[in-house]
UniProtKB/TrEMBL annotation:
Domain of life: Bacteria
Classification via InterPro entries: ADH-like_C (IPR013149), ADH-like_N (IPR013154), ADH_Zn_CS (IPR002328), CAD-like (IPR047109), ER (IPR020843), GroES-like_sf (IPR011032), NAD(P)-bd_dom_sf (IPR036291)
UniProt GO MF annotations: alcohol dehydrogenase (NADP+) activity; zinc ion binding
Keywords: Metal-binding, Oxidoreductase, Zinc
Source organism (scientific name): Leifsonia sp. NPDC080035
EC number(s) reported in the record: 1.1.1.2
Annotated catalysed reactions: a primary alcohol + NADP(+) = an aldehyde + NADPH + H(+)
Cofactor annotation: Zn(2+)
Domain Enoyl reductase (ER) span(s) in chain numbering: 11-341
Name this protein carries in UniProt: alcohol dehydrogenase (NADP(+))
PANTHER family: ALDEHYDE REDUCTASE (PTHR42683)
Family named by the database record: Belongs to the zinc-containing alcohol dehydrogenase family.
Broad class of enzyme this protein falls into: oxidoreductase
SMART domains the record matches: PKS_ER (SM00829)
Lineage, top ranks: Bacteria, Bacillati, Actinomycetota, Actinomycetes, Micrococcales
Amino acid sequence: MLTVPAYAAPSATEPLVPTTIQRRDTGANDVLIAIRYAGICHSDIHLVRGDWGPVTYPQVVGHEIAGEVVEVGSNVTKFEVGDRVGVGCMVNSCRECENCLAGFENYCLNGNTQTYGSVDRDGTITQGGYSTHVVVNEDFVLRLPEEIPYEAAAPLLCAGITTYSPLAHWNAGPGKKVAVVGLGGLGHLAVKLAAAMGADVTVLSQTLSKKEDGLRFGAKDYYATSDPATFDQLANRFDLIINTVSAPLDLSKYLGLLRLDGTMVNVGAPAEPLPITVFTLFGNRRSFAGSGIGSIAETQEMLDFCAAHGIAPEIELISADAINDAYERVLRSDVRYRFVIDASTL
Ligand code: NAP
Ligand code: ZN
């Protein structure tokens, strides 16, 4: 066992506090990673505040992890000490179900082991990346391309793959009109990725306050959803809408923006159910879909795509004692565009 510094949530209502946690010994198929940086995802906040159900506290979150391999188990073949690596939202899966066998560990039918808040094989609750070290089975470790610095790589491990996967699956590319709802951590990467794929990208944000940024990230158009005229102007326009909003939206308004056979994909994960008016789906034979992170192979593909296209998140580096302030800013939609914790300050 290794005792390491971490930041943990003591309950749903208290600020995160410094603590120590134990990491298991590096098993035969494991690598021990010295974490350099960890991104703050809105999912971290949803989970620690109990939005998604009961939590066993204290809980360390963080599933955007970038660091260096410092020890490998005896059976490890993919990694060596010194390798630059990443870990995203999952650290294991059953490896036996239909979806795992098809290479979709993110859709494991027995429930994959999440990087935090899951019951691990040894019965303990997994603890996430707001810590200095983590031990992970090598099959769930990603290789960071040399071109991507550690701190920029971290947010790609969740925000990057969660937007890349639906964009790739629904064929964002030349000739396709793609709208991204919400210009936060996921949203700003969705804009950069969709633009790099060749799609015609529009941002739908609450206000026009981040318009210059959105256009700089590659969007051609930018509209405020607080202006009712937006929904008339853009009716029947998009092939694909990626909704990254962390709060409930009036979906029918957004579904009305889809053209014939268009799809709206929800990646935002609000606590509340989202009602749909089915008649809006009948018009234009529209689809409403969801998407959860991406497989390990697709995550590697996304990292390589980002390296090839020079895509990196816009980050604000913080020390560990600023995590609670960062949470408040994320909750106020005042994030530009991902907070990343410097693990050396833990
Ligand atoms: P974030 O950085 O907070 O971005 C969310 C954006 O949504 C905000 O910046 C804001 O953009 C917009 N927004 C927030 N509240 C709103 C409201 N009440 N009405 C309208 N728009 C609002 O969050 P994130 O880290 O990108 O995560 C976004 C969501 O995706 C979270 O729910 C998270 O749990 C979920 N998620 C899902 C997966 C998956 O696998 N499906 C993976 C990761 C995260 P504007 O200021 O531009 O309006
Ligand atoms: Zn996340």
